[in-house]
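Closing statement on the 2-acetamido-2-deoxy-beta-D-glucopyranose sub-project.
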Amino acid sequence: MTMRTSGAPLVQFTLPGVVGSRRESMRRGYLSVEVVLLSATGFVCLLFVLDQHGVVKRDLTPLEQPVSTKESVKLLVIPPGAAYWVRTSHLGCQENSSVVNITGFKQLPDHIKDFLRYRHCRHFPTLLDVPNKCGGPAASTEVFLFLVIKSSPSNYERREVIRKTWGKETTYEGVQVRRLFISGVPSDPREARRMKKLLRIESRDHGDILQWDFYDSFFNLTLKQVLFHQWVEKNCPGARFIFNGDDDVFVNTYNMVHYLLGLKTSNNGDKHLFVGQLIANVGPIRESWSKYYVPVQVTTSNSYPPYCGGGGILMSGFTARTIHKMSLGIELLPIDDAYLGICLEKAGLKPASHMGMRTVGVNIPSSRLDSFDPCYYRELLMVHRFVPYEMLVMWRAIQEPNLICGKKTQVYLGM
Ligand SMILES: *[C@@H]1O[C@H](CO)[C@@H](O)[C@H](O)[C@H]1NC(C)=O
Ligand SMILES: *[C@@H]1O[C@H](CO)[C@@H](O)[C@H](O)[C@H]1NC(C)=O
Ligand SMILES: *[C@@H]1O[C@H](CO)[C@@H](O)[C@H](O)[C@H]1NC(C)=O
């Protein structure tokens, strides 16, 4: 388990909604309009409250119909009371109510209770999809490196900078690179509505968003991972190699492609490869204050098999498909990277370390804390924990043709 930043909202924007428009009309003094609007608002709020308590059944979804593709733009200017108050349904999967009978259940933190209630749920509809990302299953063998980035909906700026830098969909040394962000939905309904609009716009502009209808929470990361492997199996089974990481990592795509091309004669994606920052001899954290707390009620095992830090993992298409097969028979565990270790173990495969992949604490060889040496990053495949502007600066720096490594090559990021 690597240290991850929790998806702090980076985007703030407001769209015309009920409240704004109501203020407008009051200013103009149209009393009747105001009354109508207030009633509409009241009604919608009532619906919303009822919905929160599960009173209104999910058959309200049809109200959302117009929000497919181009229609969504129009929705942004639709006056108050519009249908986008209603949340998309979580069809199908019922909570497991017998979990209350597990010893000590009542004392567990809420997110763990929640995990246990929905642990068995593995089928969630896609809200945004890109089934043709790899040109269809048959043509997907043309995709050499598939960059699949776990991104919470609000991390807009991170996605933007990745698109401009290491995640560019282009050809390196004659091979194709493709990019995809994988996401769930925010659990807060207000945030969910905003992000729905944002992701729909991004999806239309860039065609790189895969979003499922489940809460994008830390303990649902394994679910995201498992659903992604399922998606690859169906839509992109021929991709040679997959890089799967967080949206705050910096990838030296040139080096990664170069490294993979170097394997080509012995492994063209059809054999096992699973490399990253190797973590071994660890087990579930039993301290309840920890973000990574996994109580015995979730797993009684005291150790995890070796695995790679989930901040960034490079694997072959073969291994991605093997993980998919194994995962079908393994109960979900909250720690996504450890879960992958369990899948590998079941298949008799081993994760490996690659010295160019740093997911935990990079020791920056620099006298100044706020400076980075591009020469250092030029040698790596991937580093964890970059903020968007650092990614941009570093991406440019490593491409600098006149970069003379040895001395005086620091890029000052701190001002
Ligand atoms: C919990 O256990 C009790 C006693 O075995 C049983 O009567 C009850 O139905 C169980 N509750 C659930 C929700 O499974
Ligand atoms: C529901 O939870 C109980 C108690 O943990 C477990 O034995 C059972 O297998 C679970 N049911 C499903 C469908 O996962
Ligand atoms: C995972 O997502 C499902 C569907 O949105 C939700 O019911 C569940 O509470 C989430 N689990 C956690 C641990 O957040």
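The first helix runs from residue 18 to 28. With this model delivered, the sub-project is considered complete and its resources will be redirected to Aim 3.
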